[in-house]
Amino acid sequence: TSPPLPPPQRLRFSLGPETAPEVERAKRHLDSLAADVEVHCFSHEGFGAGGGLRAEAIVQVALQVAFYRAHGSLCASCEPTSLRHVLPGCTDLLRPPGPPCLALARALDDPQAEAELQLALLGEAVEAQSRHRQEVRGRGCGGGGAGGRGGRGAGRPRRGLRRAPIAAGAPLPDIFMAPAYALATHFRRCTVQV
């Protein structure tokens, strides 16, 4: 499990006469948005450690399949996640496993695909998502065990490789200028700790 975090410290702000009405208007708007939210919670014992497929991995895979069904392709997507087990204050991005999600989405849209195949592809996609989550987040995200240290995602090193030449005043390597790189890092879907 995660180490306990200290309780948040209350911050006090001093607002002048020019900003106080704007803050109050924003507060009313936020309260209105919050009033429109409807939340339904339930428990299901069939998920998690010892219970089969991990619920958060299923949700990420389902979001990719839904995007595929709506747009006919997968999209570059990410889930920002904390790496506090590795380095306090550090984050990285979890990306869903593209090929298994694509195979599942295509099988679900194929009227000839058998249910057993679809279920097997769902298991493969969810397992790939869970493995990637384990590599990035490490212990505390399920199935970590003693060796689940985390911090092995590609986002941080890739960002460092891109920023190093900029900091040194050198030109960016061609790979960072390629249209494919721009497409792969333009996230059309971003979820936070679903």
TrEMBL record:
<protein>
    <submittedName>
        <fullName>CACP acetyltransferase</fullName>
    </submittedName>
</protein>
<keyword id="KW-0808">Transferase</keyword>
<comment type="similarity">
    <text>Belongs to the carnitine/choline acetyltransferase family.</text>
</comment>
<dbReference type="GO" id="GO:0005777">
    <property type="term" value="C:peroxisome"/>
</dbReference>
<feature type="region of interest" description="Disordered">
    <location>
        <begin position="133"/>
        <end position="160"/>
    </location>
</feature>
<feature type="compositionally biased region" description="Gly residues">
    <location>
        <begin position="139"/>
        <end position="154"/>
    </location>
</feature>
<feature type="domain" description="Choline/carnitine acyltransferase">
    <location>
        <begin position="5"/>
        <end position="140"/>
    </location>
</feature>
<dbReference type="GO" id="GO:0004092">
    <property type="term" value="F:carnitine O-acetyltransferase activity"/>
</dbReference>
<dbReference type="GO" id="GO:0019254">
    <property type="term" value="P:carnitine metabolic process, CoA-linked"/>
</dbReference>
<dbReference type="InterPro" id="IPR039551">
    <property type="entry name" value="Cho/carn_acyl_trans"/>
</dbReference>
<dbReference type="InterPro" id="IPR023213">
    <property type="entry name" value="CAT-like_dom_sf"/>
</dbReference>
<dbReference type="InterPro" id="IPR000542">
    <property type="entry name" value="Carn_acyl_trans"/>
</dbReference>
<dbReference type="Pfam" id="PF00755">
    <property type="entry name" value="Carn_acyltransf"/>
</dbReference>
